[in-house]
Write a structure and sequence with these properties.
heterodimer; A: 242 residues; alpha/beta; 23% strand; disordered C terminus; B: 297 residues; alpha+beta; 4-stranded antiparallel beta sheet
């Protein structure tokens, strides 16, 4: 596959916060369209930082990041919102807006993109039904359980049909049965073409979905691991030749 | 149900409660300063037109001379003045008018024979419309030919009065400018506070692809209505204050005090302050948000 088609490409990316030590060293990766990866590593290994780099919440201290074929370092600032709209994010802490209903939270990316209220009326209740929250459309986040908030967050992340979905510990606050349901939901999304990365430290989940490759972060370095094993994958993920 | 709740609940912020009153107070101050500018400007114009083209000649009684001799000197002066090119008319100010001018200080009988006061004779001189004369030369000629005659062209008095009015106008304009800056600073502070309070939501909107303008619109819309509310409060208070001052000033019989009643055009200028405050608030909030969001990654 042509490298220019990659959804995400990192080349020797390093990240440090302020004058502190480097939390990510020489990270190089390629995510082809339609791929599904787990991002694993212990707490504090830098999984969230790597995701933040991917959703343009941070700029790297060094290295090159290409998103949907666009070098983010040289892209004009005005072009970044359009790139961000191609990414769905499930935040670890959900980041739902408490004063908005579940429906309005999910509708937010559509409103930002300028969708009509008719489109919102058509698509949002349908998606809430799909994630099993058809009876919670008017509920405010503070009245929802952890699992329900998680599903609202996922619905918000996918409502605008993103090309890339980044999920940070999407199963961290739910019991196993809901976790499995959420994972199947992400899997379904991947099957219709969305590139998915799921950051998790839940080994059970990773083992249950062992058909997917992993990106493992340890000591700030990224190691690709083949599905069900420890072999680096050359096709979809590769250390960029330095 | 689909609602139209804004993503940022700015209406619940404390700034929504205090900002209209702060802006209202500043608009009141600005309106009063602006009204002062307009009143002084109109008064200056009135003084200039009222006194332009007029001169006053005063015949001070010479020591030892009787009233008839002073009157004779006044008549000679009038004759001289009427013969001077550029002068349209010259006439003695009637005794009744002189008595009225002296009454506040000397009482009703200032000109009676019993008092025998050496009251100067006044001659009111009017120039030909648009004309001008050399008042220094005329004053010198009068002083040479008519003992005790002096010419007052009101120039020095008018010049000082107009200079004072202009200085007050400049100060009032400066006050309006400073109030404008203070209002802008207040809106900047309130907007930054709003950004800090809603930082997480603003960041979320930014990360899910909101343009800077989308975030700015949420703040600028709120700032517009708060500015308009404050502007209306201040304008209404200023109108009440000006009407009250106009009423109080109307009770004082002082011809030199400028009229405190505003014209329709001047009221229209004051009425424009409220929408101006709303627009300034809106633009300030927009620029503040765009600057803050522009610093995000």
């Amino acid at each position: 596959m042509n490298q220019g088609d990659d959804v995400v490409r990192f080349q020797n990316v390093g990240l440090r916060y302020g004058l502190g030590p480097e939390v990510l060293h020489d990270v190089s990766l390629r995510l082809p369209p339609g791929s599904f990866h787990f991002l694993t590593g212990d707490s504090g290994a830098g999984k969230s930082s790597l995701l933040r780099l991917m959703y343009l919440g941070l700029r790297p201290s060094r290295g090159l990041i290409t998103l949907f074929g666009t070098d983010i370092a040289t892209a004009p600032r005005a072009a970044l919102p359009a790139l961000r709209r191609g990414i769905g994010i499930v935040f670890q802490d959900f980041r739902l807006i408490d004063h908005l209903s579940a429906l309005d939270n999910v509708a937010l990316p559509l409103r930002i993109a300028g969708a009509s209220e008719q489109q919102i009326r058509e698509h949002v209740p349908e998606l809430l039904r799909w994630v099993g929250l058809s009876d919670k459309v008017d509920a405010r986040p503070p009245t929802l359980s952890g699992g329900q908030k998680q599903r609202v967050a996922i619905a918000r992340a996918i409502i605008a049909r993103p090309r890339l979905l980044l999920a940070d510990e999407p199963t961290g606050n739910v019991d196993d049965s809901i976790a499995m349901r959420l994972m199947h939901l992400l899997e379904q999304l991947n099957k219709i073409g969305t590139t998915v990365i799921v950051a998790t430290h839940n080994e059970n989940i990773v083992n249950r979905f062992e058909q997917y490759p992993r990106l493992h972060l340890g000591n700030g370095e990224l190691t690709p691991i083949a599905p069900g094993g420890a072999t680096p994958v050359a096709g979809s993920i590769e250390q960029a030749a330095s | 149900m689909i609602s139209t709740s804004p993503a940022l609940p700015l209406s619940r912020d404390a700034s929504s409660r205090f900002l209209p009153w702060l802006i209202g107070f500043m608009v009141w101050l600005a309106a009063m300063a602006l009204a002062l500018v307009m009143i002084l400007s109109a008064a200056g114009q009135q003084w200039r037109t009222g006194l332009a083209g007029t001169l006053t000649v005063q015949i001070i009684p010479v020591a030892g001379a009787d009233s008839a001799a002073t009157d004779a000197l006044a008549r000679r002066a009038i004759k001289l003045l009427r013969a001077t090119p550029g002068i349209a008319s010259a006439a003695s100010v009637p005794d009744v008018q002189v008595a009225a001018l002296l009454e506040p200080w000397l009482g009703k009988d200032a000109l009676s024979a019993d008092m025998n006061l050496p009251v100067p004779r006044l001659i009111d001189v009017r120039l030909i419309a648009g004309g001008a004369i050399d008042s220094d030369a005329l004053g010198a000629q009068l002083a040479a030919e008519i003992p005790g005659a002096t010419l007052d062209d009101h120039g020095l008095w008018l010049e000082r009065l107009v200079a004072l009015a202009r200085a007050l106008e400049a100060i009032a304009f400066a006050v309006v400018g400073l109030i404008g800056l203070a209002a802008i600073a207040t809106v900047v502070f309130a907007t930054r506070t709003g950004l800090a309070i809603h930082h997480e939501v603003v960041e979320l909107l930014h990360l899910i692809g909101a343009q800077d303008g989308y975030v700015a619109r949420q703040f600028q819309g709120r700032a517009f209505w708060l500015g308009l509310e404050g502007g209306l409060i201040g304008t209404v208070l200023a109108a009440v204050t000006l009407v009250l001052l106009g009423y109080l000033a109307g009770r004082i019989e002082a011809s030199l005090l400028p009229p405190l009643a505003l014209s329709v055009q001047q009221w229209a200028v004051l009425a424009a302050i409220a929408p101006a405050a709303a627009l300034i608030s809106m633009l300030t909030a927009r620029l503040t948000v765009q600057r803050a969001v522009g610093r995000m990654a």
